[in-house]
Amino acid sequence: MTLVNRLGGVICRLKSLILGTAGTVFLASCGRNAPQDTFQPKGPNAQKIDTLQKPVFAVAGIIGVIVAVAVVYSMVKFRDRGQPIPKQSHGNPALEITLTIIPALILAVVGVFTFRTVFDLNKTSDTQMIINVTGQQWWWEYDYPANNEYGITQPIITSGQLVIPVGTKVMLRETSRDVIHSYWIPALNGKRDAVPGRITTNRIEADEPGIYAGQCTEFCGLSHANMRMEAVALSKEDFAKWVANQLKPYAAPAESTLAKEGETVFLNQCTRCHQVNGLTRADGTPVIAAPDENVWSGAAPNLSHLMSRNTFAGAMFNLVTPECRTDVWKSESVTFGAKYLAGVDEPCLNQTDLRGWLRNAPAMKPMYANPALLAATGGKYRGMPNLGLSESDIEKLVAYLLTLK
Amino acid sequence: MAIIERPVSLEVQPLIVVAPATPSSAMGAVKRPVVTKGWRQWVFTVDHKKIGIMYMVTAMFFFLVGGLEAVAIRLQLALPNGKILNADLYNQMFTMHATTMVFLFVMPMAAGFANYFIPLQIGARDVAFPRINAFGFWALLFGGLFINLSWFLGGAADGGWFMYAPNSGPIFSPSHGVDFWALGLQITGIASLTGAINLIVTILNMRAPGMKLMRMPIFTWMILVVQFLLAFAVPVITVALFLLSFQRNFGATFFDVAAGADPLLWQHLFWIFGHPEVYILILPSFGIISEVLPVFSRKPLFGYPFVVFSGAAIGFVGWGVWAHHMFATGLGPISVAVFSISTMAIAVPTGVKIVNWTLTLWGGKLWFTTAMKFSIGLIVLFTIGGLSGVTHSVAPSDTQQTDTYYVVAHFHYVLFGGAVLGLFSGFYYWWPKMFGKMLNEKLGSWNFWLMIIGMNLTFGPMHILGLQGQPRRMYQWTENRAGEGLFNFGFWNLVSSIGSLVLTVGVLVFLINVFITARNGKVAPLDPWGARSLEWMTSNPPKEHNFDSIPTVKHLDEFFHRKYAEDTSGQMQQVATAEEVLKQLEDNADAHIHMPSPSYWPIIIAFGLPVTAIGVIYSVPVAIFGGIIILMSAFAWALEPSTAPDTDFDPPTSSDTSKDVVHVG
User: Fold this and answer.
1) What are φ and ψ of residue A123, in 5° steps?
2) Which of A166, A206, A386, B617 pairs with A285 at a CA distance of 20 to 30 A?
3) Looking at residues B179-208, what average pLDDT do you find?
4) Residue A30 resides in a domain
């Protein structure tokens, strides 16, 4: 073979090596601030993983380089230069055994540290707060059991953003109402599947206030790609404020406002599935949503205090405009809490996506919401159907939703 | 086919001549097919070489299908919010890409190589059960076509190749795609099982005299390990697929959580099959390059017994690592820790192989043919995949990387950089043996470099994407999560998509090479590579009966040792040419060579399987009809005459007195 070929061989092997192993970590760090980067821990659990995995990646990279260099060296050194046919040696058991024991020893060392970290990460005895996390196609529900220590005097049910206090060992008790999902906030911890019929536990803790992005990572059907999550860490004081807001009683819109008309539309169109705590009918009876009659998973997001969240539709869309979103995400950790707790007001509301969603939700997010194709589920939807709302209804609804602070 | 008999002298004639069974003396009413021309010589053949070629053609067809699916996926993901495929079609696309590549490309391609070369490598004239061999191929083909039929009947399977419950259930996947998938894989599973039993029996019982197990070519060894893996792994997936089919088609509740089922049952069943399956995919290629590297290094495989036993060790330990696919499911720390350690353990025998291949090159006299390039490419690229596999064995780290593109990168380095490069090495190495013509080395070089560059561009960036946090199986990715700077999701996704096009061109060059070689390729010399094993001790392509006389084996690398011997100074000197070795075999040709006759029934039984499967999906009476086809043709199979009489042949070979080979009843 020609020299060019041989040189090409060297270059390609070096390149593939760089792309493949040794340079991976380096190159990954070239793209900054990917919100789901797995090498940027922001809490002690993710930090433990990071401390373990960085040396492993480095050792793997070094071994990869050694193999590649050995191969390339032999390719150059032992190419056919007209030398006689080599001695027909069948091997060298001593060398062989040495080269078996060395990797075994390296792996044994890695194994010991892995073992320790596995048990370390599974520790639950010092948990300070429990949140029930329930996955369903294609959104997460967060259910905070009553916990007087944090001022949670009655359960809080929310969705879209998981709100936690910083420096607190939070245990997520995960399950699912339909298929398997997986909860993953890379900055806080690795993944843990939410399996229907089982409860799995996952500990997270954030060091600093801020928003940490995540994504459902177990394939869960049509809108798997759109099943996102965000964990919001607030200082302990800000968390207490958030709790107080969530527990605030329902405030009906003032009579003869557009929002009041919107409440009527909401009562007629939305409360079959969506709960707003404290909402009553004209005769004063409380409205209890019955999503189990209309949705296969039996749940729809609870919309109480909707405007305290930054996302909707399973965190697929921002409830705030891009400018307002950047303002919150990029703020210093000192000012973050106040900005987040301000919630969504009219200038910041992402009218385009919210109206589009109300107009025809299945057009914006792939779901099984076509009434003609629901034979298998006995007519129950998976996701929000097209309600056929008029533009004036949408106008009223938006006005009403803005009052759900 | 029939019995090939030479005029023989009296002294070698057997004392007792048993009259061969003929239609009149057998119970069967149906004759054996005897046409040796046109399509019928293929459809009814039981010749392991023809079946091997049919396996390879089928696998290559599905490789192109799976490749097109991959390109569609990459085009969709090239830019944020891709619009080429909708979510539903994308889910079908990645499900079928994996299913096709695993079950309909790599497995049958390896089966094709095994079929063609195992009898030749062990000095046999065919496999132990030639009709079952034919049946296995037809079942594979019909199973593969059956799965893909779903594209035209309401949509393909959309649950991922791992088909996790309960997402695979009738509620969550209402089209018939999953039904076609489950039943089609059941059919290809039958093909794999019959093939496995057949090859195990062939390898253990039909080796040439003197070929002890530790003198077997390493490819044969690796295929033997794979067949044992298949024989034990396929039944597990068979059970899982039956549970799934009964749930979907007959209202069973094996994975119905509301009825008390635990969806993790499926995952355990799937991965107890699925992890050995990984080794089923990779070991044949390990075998191929363990043949190719010594030939083009001009020295034996370094540490042959270590390579054999590390292959066997992988085969054993491979059963104890399945739950590393489930580190995120909440198995509990003890299970996670144990499977983490066992996964690290399996890296050791894998590392042994890499060391041995490298040391095979060491001190050799290297000849960089295309086959050699693909093999060396495998060493380097598979090592990258193996090392990223080690990072997965670290369970806490895996909970960050699992279900991201890092995993996609890992197994493509293992399966493309490993399995596929090995298969391509095999094409270039054995093409002259199979077709008597040399694949063009210049186009081969283009083929190699385009594929290597293409694959590194396609799968290399996926490491980075995964570590940056891009999950798998998402029909779109969003700029919101892409990160900042030049080297964000957008950049690497685009590079990867461009790489997939380069890869496609590389594969096209191979097809062009095949086309050009078929039209006016260079006729292959008898021993173009200076090979070492028995399959080269016959003509190119081999005669129907493989060897005129069965060689007696005295060495590992028997062919090499017939050509070369050490002189007094310890230098290897050529003592015979390949032609001389072959002539010696021809001069001592066996008197009676009994070859199996073709049969109608393998293809007909195999056809009954998809008919039954269609019936399971749409209408039970059709399934019963399919069952009747299978049952009746099984009887016909059992009762057909053992050979075809000479008078059935057209033209009767007995009238052709110029040849010394005659077919007799």
Assistant:
1) -65, 130
2) A386
3) 97
4) no
pLDDT digits (tens, 9 = 90+) for A142-165: 999 999 999 999 999 999 999 999
| Residue B216: pLDDT over 50 | yes
Interface check for B492 against chain A (CB to CB < 8 A): the answer is yes
* Boundaries of domain holding A98: 36-80+90-122
Residues A153 and A71 both lie in one domain: no
Residue A167 covered by a domain: yes
Residue written as tokens 């077997």? B216
Q: Please tell me whether residues A139 and A71 are part of one structural domain.
A: no
Range A184-194 average pLDDT: 97
Domains and CATH numbers, chain B: 47-478+486-596 (1.20.210.10)
- What six digits make up the tokens of B470? 């891009």
Structural tokens at position A40 = 């940027």
pTM for the full predicted model: 0.92
Task: Give the residue on A whose Cα is nearest the Cα of B161.
Answer: A219
In B238-297, the residues whose Cβ lies within 8 Å of chain A are 257, 260-264, 297
- Specify the CATH number for the domain of residue A271: 2.60.40.420
ipTM > 0.90 (yes/no): yes
Among B164, B340, B477, whose Cβ lies nearest the Cβ of A114?
B340
pLDDT band at A361 (very low <50, low <70, confident <90, very high): very high
Which band of pLDDT confidence, cut at 50, 70 and 90, is reported for residue B649?
low
Q: Does residue A351 share a domain with residue A324?
A: yes
Taking residues B204-229, report their average pLDDT: 97
Number of domains in chain A: 2
pLDDT in the model for residue B641: 82
A134 and A243, same domain (yes or no): yes
Beta-carbon contacts of residue B245 (< 8 Å; ≥ 6 apart): B179, B182, B183, B186, B616
Average pLDDT over residues B305-318: 93
Q: How high is the pLDDT of residue A2? A: 44
Nearest to B419 by CA among B459, B469, B381: B381
Examine the domain organization and report whether A106 and A203 are in the same domain.
no
The verdict on residue A371 lying in a domain is yes
B28 confidence band (pLDDT: 50, 70, 90): low
Nearest to A222 among B88, B263, B480 (CB): B88
What residue of B is the nearest CA neighbor of A197? B257
Question: Domain check: are A116 and A177 in the same one?
Answer: no
Whether B373 has its CB under 8 Å from any CB of chain A: the answer is yes
Residues A224, A135 share a domain: yes
Measured between CA atoms, the residue of chain B closest to residue A326 is B480
Is the pLDDT reported for residue B658 higher than 90? Answer: no
* A103 and A136 share one domain: no
Q: Which residues pair with A218 in a beta bridge?
A: none
Tokens, residue A304: 């109480």
pLDDT of residue B660: 41
The pLDDT of residue B664 is 36
List CB contacts of A346: < 8 A, sequence separation 6 or more.
A402
| CA dihedral sign of residues A256, A262, A268, A273 | negative
Q: What is the CATH number of the domain that holds A67?
A: 1.10.287.90
Identity of the residue in B88, B341, B351 whose CB atom sits nearest the CB atom of A103: B351
Contact B485 A31 (CB under 8 A): yes
Chain A residues closer than 8 Å to B480 by CB: 35, 213
Q: Is residue A72 part of a domain?
A: yes
Say whether B400 and A49 touch across the interface (CB within 8 A).
yes
